[in-house]
Amino acid sequence: DLPDSAATALVDAERGTAVFDPEAQEREAFEGRIAAAAAERAAIEPYRLKPAVTATGERVSVMINVADPDELDALDPAICDGVGLTRTEFLFHAGHGLPDEETQYRAYARIAAWAKGRPVTIRTLDAGGDKPIEGLTIAETNPFLGLRGIRLCLARPDVFTVQLRALARAAVAGNIKVMLPMVAIPDEIARTADLLDTVIRTLIGEGIACARPALGIMVEVPAAALRAGDFPADFYSIGSNDLTQYTLAASRDSAEVGNLNDAANPAVLDLVARTVAAGTARGVEVSLCGDAAADPAILPKLLDAGLRSGSVAPIAIARVKAAIARYGG
Ligand code: PEP
Ligand code: MG
Questions:
Q1: pTM above 0.85?
Q2: CA distances from 223 to 218, 227, 247, 318 (A)
Q3: What is the whole-number distance in angstroms between the Cα of residue 241 and the centre of ligand 2?
Q4: Percentages (nearest 5) of helix, strand, coil residues in the chain
């Protein structure tokens, strides 16, 4: 409860708590935690620019998630092995209607230029569910199970084609990989591959420089995790946020079922291990770009499941690499 007035507030952003006009004892404990957090930050800092390696010398790829390319200006690409997830929804929230091809091309080419040859994974529009987009997503009684992600893109080839054209053009400028969200059945990537072929043929016909980017899928629907090997994907990236909510039937945005929405649940970890095994059998990369990769309590379990690649928010890079360095020791 917020008091009417207070002289001092102790705000703990990590725990999501605030204490108003604290007792001396509370203040002392809080200051102790601030000092401990500063010491931890200093201890993990040396890991930031180094490649991630486990205590037993195994290399782990650590990439970053990008929600807005503006944040890249302050980042050195040497902190990461590439971009594991670009959430392209930022282009569709700019408030000027749907972004045109040139706007999208410039945004993707800018990220590729920043990455200096490192892989840049760009996810096609993941509208719907927790990411409604005005003028595009439709009203549904259960939007998380409705027309979202790749389903919406395939239902709107007019919108999807513009994005695929921009991506095929940006693939000339760097190591662009295209990733499809919410894939549930192999037909969805097969249809997208056909659309991409058509887009590339058209661009070539128009004399516009383009290249065919690698085409992979997010594994965030249990059906895809159970049968990952059936999907003709160039790579897999596990979306643990959605995979957890769909596996446990517990919404990712409801505190009421927060105890069930646990990426460390053995059922979720089994699906991660299955996906890693399917990728290994097919000789393609398996990464994980959900929040679980940045959770020090869950990360060792993901590594136990065989995962050797992850993508996290830039702020978590040093902490994740430090946790990897402790693994297996
Ligand atoms: C996920 O579902 O884990 C994921 C990375 O995608 P988003 O959080 O954007 O749905
Ligand atoms: Mg998702």
A1: yes
A2: 12, 6, 10, 33
A3: 6
A4: 45, 15, 35
